[in-house]
Amino acid sequence: MPPHPRTPLPRLAFGGDYNPEQWPEEVWREDVRLMREAGVTMVSVGVFSWALLEPEPGVHDFGWLDRLLDLLHTHGVRVALATPTVAPPAWFYRAHPEALPVTADGVRYAFGSRGAICHSSTAYRAAAADITTRLGERYGAHPALALWHVHNEYGVPVSACYCDSCAAHFRRWIEAAHGTVDALNEAWGTAFWGQRYTSFEQIDPPRRTPGAVNPAQALDHRRFADATMRENFVSERDILHRLSPGVPVTTNFMTALSQCDTVDYWAWGREVDLVTNDHYLITDGRRTHVNLAMAADLTRSVAGGAPWLLLEHSTSGVNWQPRNPAKAPGEMARNSLAHVARGSEGAMFFQWRQSRRGAEKFHSAMLPHGGTATRIWREVVRLGSDIAALAETAGTRTEADAAVVWDWQSAWAQGLGGHPTVDHDPVERADAFYEALYDSHLTVDFAHPEADLTRYPLAVVPASYLMTEAAGRNLRRYVEGGGTLVVSYFSGIVDEHDAVHPGPVPGALRDVLGLTVEEFSPLLPGRTVRLDGPGGATWTADVWTEAVVPDTARTVWTYADGLTAGHPAVTRNRLGAGTAWYVSTRLGATDLAALLRTVRADAGLPAPAALPRDVEVVRRSGDGGTYLFAVNHTGSDATVPLDAPGTELLTATPVTGHLTVPAGAVRVVRLPPDA
Description:
The chain is an alpha/beta fold. It folds into 2 domains: 279 residues, Alpha-Beta Barrel (TIM Barrel); 201 residues, 3-Layer(aba) Sandwich (Rossmann fold), CATH 3.40.50.880. 30% of the residues lie in helices and 20% in strands. It has 17 helices and 29 strands. The strands form 5 sheets. The protein has a 10-stranded mixed beta sheet, with helices on both faces. The chain is globular, with a radius of gyration of 26 Å. The protein starts with 12 loop residues before the first strand and ends with a strand. The N terminus is likely disordered.
């Protein structure tokens, strides 16, 4: 359970990171005037301000922050006040160079960026607790304070450290986790390659070695690094809970699977009072709005379905990708409101005023270099008005149709090497299955493999290589109780210690799928296989095949060529009141979509709505009512059918029968509570 009940904000938030220390104080009054014009309700302050707040050890200057918070309060702008512990000052590192992290190669990072922290450093922990305490004592009851924002993007850019302090801390952590050296030897399989230990003191982090390191050791070190960062967050959180009771405490996540792979957000979600997230479009040629929807759904799921907050995204282009295109007119608002549709209590940006100096001076902002005579500024002002028009949606919850089972620790294990092919990517499979569900106009929750899935008629398990016995039993109960399960290849293979489950694979899922796999047979680059299916239909697959041997499962599609020719490729197993499907190869988007249409019918879900591709329709509901969000990512106007008459909130017009959503626009309809 979280430390406090999930804490909603009193209103939808609109604003961004505010870094007034980059500007003369005379600019601040212009800032707050423009914030009022844009409809800004909240700004994040102080994320990188430690060197200003404590310019010398033990010497503090809070005067500028006092004046700033008072000014913001006077103008009706609330504050998410950060602890600046992501960026200790230069003097701190000069006094404590051991607080800089060390790579697995033994190279110590230098000062000059951000997030360069050894989270095991006792000096860092003491200094972070001290500055957090001083901020809590001084501002814990300030009337502008809406939210505490601890640190910044834990795990970015460094999560793990391999220094001697971390080695000692790691030994303590693994002793607590395993109890005895004998238990650790069993869990890590140290009989292989003669790695057996007789004392915890003999164990180091998985530093650079001539060959592959023990994967179980490396997996535990990933867990240790994540847990150590979380310990530091909890320390700061508890200080703020004590000094500032009633004010929620958060830290900004980065749940998008392609943006941060070092944090187990299921564990972190239990520790914050309000889940917040940063999301930036990855402009790699794919449909960026699908990844946005996926990240928003994942963030909401980490929040347990409760409302959450988009704490950072961009008004236009970023600066840290190889190529950083600007957002098209209207795209900023569409991105923002798509997050709101999927549960965010507003839309915040990095940052308010675009920087003139530093590494992010070409990162877009709410107030660009060009000032108020820009398209971006005009769109910001319009978005502020739209967010205000949606005030009544606050506190409602997004309704989901299906679940995707996801486990960050399983993804970690799949990245450790020594597997049948380097071409298999668990994030790619999660993306592919999510996109197929998105294109069939299903709203998705994500779930941990051991979570209760009974409320979902359909659950998808993409590439869950690591799966505990408890998770396997949970998925079996789900199917026996009437659920429809779809499992992709290389799932259920190893336990929590990266040891292959006893007996034939897929060990943890063998019974629920009603089959065994004799052999993995990955394909070489560029090679494909043909699959034969019902009615003479054919599909094409690549990357992976398996020699599947059905037991109670029925073969639906068969490998037609390759080494696995004649073996089942896709199977269906009836178990209790439900059905489990297995996909033993990598299907392309078209064929995967076709399979999920069949599975959807199996699950008793209605046929997809008659909507154009890239028009998403999502519902939020609660005591305040039911709200239908329609987001049109296409270049043509779209028509969305309505089950009941309602009122469109952004244009304040009544609608009945259907809703017209202009090209590239968003519409939000208040429906009757029972609609």
